[in-house]
Amino acid sequence: MTQAWDFVNANDLWQTRLSILDQSIDELELSIRAHHCLLNLGIKIIGELVTRTQDDLTRCPNFGRKSLYDVREALAMHRLSLAGEGNDRRRFD
């Protein structure tokens, strides 16, 4: 039997996950290089970042494997991933 608090907890989880997408990329605490590259690509919030692919990011000069690794790890901490990656962590389980 479903309890009323199950709906409240699910709603709180949904709102928390959505609010992450509205946060600045500053919250990811990326390296200076990765952060500047994202800004150069016009990416300012996490919601914009998760719509981009690896290829989108690596088109930016100076955005290499280390920056890509940093971005993936930072997103994974929030159960998020870049667009088009196999394990889509953006789904709200």
SS content category: mainly alpha
CATH homology group: 5' to 3' exonuclease, C-terminal subdomain
Treating each run of at least 4 consecutive H or I residues as one helix, how many helices? 5
Predict the CATH topology: DNA polymerase, domain 1
Q: Please state roughly what percent of the residues sit in beta strands, choosing from under 5%, 5-15%, 15-25%, 25-35%, 35-45% or over 45%.
A: under 5%
Unreliable residue stretches: 88-93
Can you describe this structure in just a few lines?
By secondary structure, this protein is mainly alpha-helical. It has a single domain, classed as 5' to 3' exonuclease, C-terminal subdomain (DNA polymerase, domain 1). The protein is built from five helices and no strands.
Characterise the protein shown here.
- By secondary structure, the chain is mostly helical.
- It has a single domain, classed as DNA polymerase, domain 1, CATH 1.10.150.
- 52% of the residues lie in helices and 0% in strands.
- The protein has 5 helices and no strands.
- The radius of gyration is 15 Å and the shape is globular.
- It starts with a helix and ends in a 17-residue tail after the last helix.
- The C terminus is likely disordered.
Would you spell out the secondary-structure blueprint of this structure?
Layout: H1 4-21, H2 32-40, H3 46-49, H4 54-58, H5 65-76
Task: Give descriptors for this structure.
mainly alpha, disordered C terminus, DNA polymerase, domain 1, 93 residues
